[in-house]
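note to self: dont lose this again. the chain is below, predicted strucutre after it. 95 aa total, dont forget to put it in the shared folder this time
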Amino acid sequence: MSDTSLTKEEIHELEEYVNTTKKKPISQKLDFFFNKMIPKKLMVWIIATVLIFLGRLDGSWWGIITCVYLGTNAITKFSPLINNFLGKNGGSEIQ
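---
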């Protein structure tokens, strides 16, 4: 059987974390969630999707938002690959 007990330092860190999060108002907790956990681009796309189902957004605008969302995600994912392919000096010299 494995020992899952916490050390005194770990218990102190947990107590400190709980005490600091209790003191934060709900708006700061929500700000942390929306700023750190969900990317802003994804949040915009989710809101646009909800609005289209509610009939508040035209389908063509939803398509534009989706294309921009997918395009920016592709650029951010493939930019390191392109930089590695071209090299650090912009591709002027083949290594």
